[in-house]
Amino acid sequence: MSDELLVRHCSPTLAGLKTANMFSCSFENREDMTKSIRKLNRVLGKKGVRVLPLRFSGNQGLIYVYRPEKLSEDLSRNGAGCILSERGYCMDSTGRCIGHLMQRISEQKEFPHEIGLFLGYPVEDVSGFIRYHAKKSKFHDYWKVYGDEAEARRLFARFHSCTRDYSRRFAQGTSLEQLTVAV
């Protein structure tokens, strides 16, 4: 997995603007994926960022890049616990929640709808997505918005600007470690 791939897909998380991002990428085999993730965790872990494989299928890995402290805060937000508890999550630790998410991803053909909570989406947008079966959103970009449209548009603009800036800086030689903000 290249550093460029992380910059392209995870800049808002690397910058500390977003709780998490995820993306798919190809690997020769599971061992190569594991080595790559360990290397990234040694570099990014110092800055409060963690990398996990959510799923490995064939030669594709679903990679989750997140900030554990922000995720713990997000999962303790009003309403998040209800959504997760209804889906069998044990709310006593963030790690157990991630483990349960990984299990649900491996067992289902579609992504579990609650995955938005693990990516830092607002609870009202995740619950709207679940309630309306992904229909009737006000608009979409990083996710489908059912709640505060103005705030979502502002956030999305920041995420896009961050990704452009990080991509430019990376192309100019700034390392992934230098781009990653410690928060």
Report on this structure.
The chain is α+β, with helices and mostly antiparallel strands. The chain has two domains: 1-66; 69-150, no CATH class. It contains nine helices and five strands, in the order H-E-H-E-E-H-H-H-H-H-E-E-H-H. It has helices at 3-14, 30-44, 68-75, 80-86, 94-107, 115-118, 123-131, 149-171, 176-179; strands spanning 20-26, 50-57, 60-66, 139-140, 144-145. Strands 1-3-2 form a three-stranded antiparallel beta sheet, sandwiched between helices. A two-stranded antiparallel sheet has the order 4-5. Helix 1 (3-14) runs antiparallel to helix 8. The longest helix is centred in the last third of the chain and has 23 residues, at 149-171. The radius of gyration is 16 Å and the shape is globular. The two termini are 24 Å apart. The model has no long low-confidence stretch (mean pLDDT 95).
